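BUG-313 | component: ligand-complex export | severity: low

The export step for N,N-dimethyl-L-histidine jobs runs without errors, but we want the raw record kept on the ticket for reference. Input record follows.
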Amino acid sequence: MTDTTFAKDIHKGLTAPLKHISSKYFYDDIGSGIFQDIMKMPEYYPTACEFEILSLQGCRIIERLGFDKPFNIVEFGAGDGIKTRQLLKQLVEIGANFTYVPIDISKKAIEELVSGMLKHLPKIKINPMIGNYFSMMEELSHTSVPALYLFLGGNIGNYEANEVNNLLKDFRGSMKKGDKLLTGFDLQKNPATIRCAYDDPKGITKSFNINLLHRINRELGGNFKTNQFDFYSHYNPLNGEVRSYLISLVPQNVFVKENQQSYSFERNEVIWTELSKKYTLREIENAAENNGFTVMEHFMDCKAFFTDSLWEV
Ligand code: AVI
């Protein structure tokens, strides 16, 4: 079935002066599968770092919540839930009275997450919500139950600075006094480490990007010849930004049936596909303060590559 928003965004992005496809379109079923492979790559450190934080420091995070009555743990975009499970397991062990509320736009993703979670933690209370984050948050903000909101995995790094502020302001607007937000931020580190994570020797990240073109072919009737595109990723240590691109190797025209439109590419013309921002602790603190939060604690892995930063309102 055609997704018309997708068709419109592709048209807008491929007719812009700097061609662009939003990284949110990486995650169809095939792209989500490739992302699972990325998370298993030895070069892609964020997953292992956050797993370590939640496994080894979960108790300390729980202590800092200070909730003395039943509470919700609300998670945005939980993925496969393996990392979150480390935290929930520790809550179950201490007999905490909580309900896990995973939110995702995809029914399939939620169903898989819930069955995986119940397989490992059969006694846990789960109240899954399918839909857009903000309408779900709006709904939750009307309850008097305190909440810990989780925005893990470094997803915040995929948003531009103005989008980060809008997102945090929206979170803040739906949170009650005493609610907490735990956000995963990838930290600035040796640029060579970051470069390898986003341009791996096996080309898995390249196929993650090329899948965007396959997806346009599959869903919008495009005729991209994907072997005529290369992948390029660049980390700028001065601003902490990884930016990734597809490069047209030859001058070419690509027709997209759904849009009844041909798009022309010059040789070496780029399509920008992703931002993945790496933060300093100071930048994280500024983001919190500028959007009405107070930083309680940064929970970092032993290499200080990644932080789950706990904020309160
Ligand atoms: C989902 N997101 C946090 C990943 C990241 O690290 O920015 C997506 C990704 N892109 C390339 N590798 C992984």
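Assignee comment: Attached the raw record above. The mean pLDDT is 95.
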